[in-house]
Automatic annotation (TrEMBL):
The keyword Metal-binding applies. Residues 223-325 form the Fe2OG dioxygenase domain. This is Fe2OG dioxygenase domain-containing protein. Keywords: Iron, Metal-binding, Oxidoreductase. InterPro entries: DIOX_N, IPNS-like_FE2OG_OXY, IPNS-like_sf, Iron_ascorbate_oxido_reductase, Oxoglu/Fe-dep_dioxygenase_dom. Belongs to the iron/ascorbate-dependent oxidoreductase family. The lineage of its organism: Eukaryota, Viridiplantae, Streptophyta, Embryophyta, Marchantiophyta. It comes from the Eukaryota. It holds the Pfam family 2OG-FeII_Oxy. It comes from Riccia sorocarpa. GO terms for molecular function: metal ion binding; oxidoreductase activity.
Length: 365
């Protein structure tokens, strides 16, 4: 008990130091940290973090990355490398199909903005993005769609391509690997323990921000909404006026990006306004924080602006998975975060699903 309390005050002290740093001088990052999160996954259920110096170190590394960079690479995450590679490989195969074939799963309002969109169809700040993609959002097909959302614009069922034939099963397996209850043969966890990657990282963030592991469970993110994008970026033709994906922040809690190896394209904006490359680090996910963490942390964690420029001769694939709050979560600054940031809420409260819907409807002309 005593021990737990001293860790807690240690976390609070760091929070205050971090905040001072933020207000005194904006330090600018020049690289993105790599964090081995395996200590977070070692325990069967919730890690007893207060008692383990390794988990404490990881929590601190994640906290520092969220405060100073908004991006980090994770390794030791337990998702098999083969599976990460296979998903991107199948995406490459899909994008080489004819437009007619790809349009069999064309995105529309009827599918709740799920499905295939051709190059230029996604728009960021009014400008067409030079990527094609299949967007998947948590399926709400009438059965499990909450009654209050029945006429909702994001109501719909995912559209899965028939070719390549293994696309759907492999992506489904991948989704369960990143989000829940997965333990494949090369997974680091023994004995069918759930991985819950997004949730484990959120538990670490919860400990850093509030001193307890479950601040984002229950009505905040206990039934997390998710999005999954399979994106293809052709090499840019008009390099000066085109962008693979315009600068933006992500909408929710955490994004886990699985990107092609050996090709640099993702750029992250630092506090000085310089673009820092998020070069691929084989076997890792690039993780970044979204708009909802800005509000919950009252600005301690700011989502970092990023963009994609495929200024290469090769076609690039990336596969982001978005781990989000509950669709109906009311997001407002946490008391413990307000206490270390001057006592006032710096951001208006939002309902996550409303924020997401506005963003999605703005992404298509
Ligand atoms: N679910 C996420 N985060 N998607 C990001 C998509 C790229 C930016 C988007 N066109 C925009 O303007 O936000
Ligand atoms: O392709 C990438 O590396 C990132 C894509 C992205 O930022 C997004 O879809 O939100
Ligand atoms: Fe993004």
């Amino acid at each position: 008990m005593l021990k737990a309390r001293s860790v807690l005050s240690g976390i609070k002290r760091r929070a205050q130091v971090g905040n001072l740093k933020m207000t005194m001088a904006k330090i600018s990052f020049s690289s993105i940290p790599v964090i081995d999160i395996s200590p977070l996954l070692e325990s069967r259920s919730t890690p007893k973090v207060q008692e383990n110096s390794n988990t404490r170190r990881v929590i601190n590394e994640i906290d520092q990355a969220c405060r100073n960079v908004g991006f980090f690479y994770v390794q030791g995450h337990g998702v098999p490398l083969d599976m990460m590679n296979q998903v991107r490989q199948l995406a490459h195969e899909f994008f080489t199909l004819s437009t007619d074939e790809k349009y069999k799963i064309k995105m529309s309002s009827a599918s709740g903005w799920r499905g295939y969109q051709r190059v230029g169809e996604n728009v960021t700040k009014g400008v067409s993005d030079m990527h094609e993609a299949i967007d998947f959002l948590q399926d709400y097909d009438g059965g499990d769609f909450p009654a209050f959302l029945h006429d909702h614009p994001l109501h719909g069922r995912n559209l899965w391509p028939e070719t390549p034939t293994s696309f759907r099963p492999v992506c489904k397996e991948y989704l369960s690997a990143v989000q829940e209850a997965y333990c494949g043969k090369s997974c680091i966890l023994a004995g069918g323990i759930s991985l819950d990657l997004g949730k484990r990282i959120m538990q670490a963030i919860s400990l850093a921000l509030t001193g307890v592991h479950d601040s984002f469970e229950g009505s905040r993110a206990g039934s997390p909404f998710w999005l999954f994008r399979v994106i293809g970026y052709p090499p840019l033709e008009r390099k000066i006026t085109e962008v693979g994906c315009g600068e933006h922040t992500d909408y929710g809690l955490l994004t886990l990006v699985n990107q092609d190896e050996g090709i640099r394209a993702l750029q992250v904006k630092n506090q000085a306004g310089e673009w820092i490359w998020a070069d691929p680090v084989p076997g890792t996910f690039v993780v970044n924080i979204g708009d909802m963490l800005k509000i919950w942390s009252n600005g301690l964690y700011m989502p970092t602006v990023h963009r994609v420029l495929n200024d290469n001769s090769k076609y690039r694939v990336s596969v982001p998975y978005f781990y989000e709050p509950n669709f109906d979560a009311l997001v407002k600054p946490l008391d413990s975060c307000k206490q270390v940031t001057g006592g006032e809420s710096k951001f208006a409260s939002v309902v996550y699903g409303e924020h997401l819907t506005k963003k999605v409807l703005n992404n298509f002309k």
